[in-house]
């Protein structure tokens, strides 16, 4: 019986994988900055948008530093939460 290897080392250590990891971090931080800037224009529900922005920054950096399926899934869920919170406010 084999164990599940959730670390994506096969592509993450190659030059193209390193470029993708830098792209994940840069895109995540840019999107988090835009979400936090959007929070300054809202009249209500600002705290929810701030929490989404901060958690997006944290999950994108964690997924870029050590990409596992769990961390990439958390990043995807966080990115999908942005439009949902936008509709709620």
Protein model, in words:
The chain is built from 4 helices and no strands. The radius of gyration is 15 Å and the shape is elongated. α2 packs antiparallel against α3 and α3 packs antiparallel against α4. Helices cover 78% and strands 0% of the residues. The model has no long low-confidence stretch (mean pLDDT 86). It is mainly α and 89 residues long. The protein starts with 8 loop residues before the first helix and ends with a helix.
Give the overall form. Answer: elongated
Order of SSEs, N→C? HHHH
* Tally of contiguous helical segments: 4
Mind telling me the C-alpha Rg?
A: 15 Å
Give the fraction of residues assigned to helices.
over 70%
Q: List unreliable stretches of 5+ residues.
A: none
Number of strands: 0
> For the report, how would you describe the main beta sheet?
none
What is the residue-averaged pLDDT? 86
Instruction: Quickly give the structural class.
Output: mainly alpha
Q: β content, as a range? A: under 5%
> How widely separated are the two ends?
49 Å
Topology:
Elements: H1 9-12, H2 15-39, H3 46-65, H4 69-88
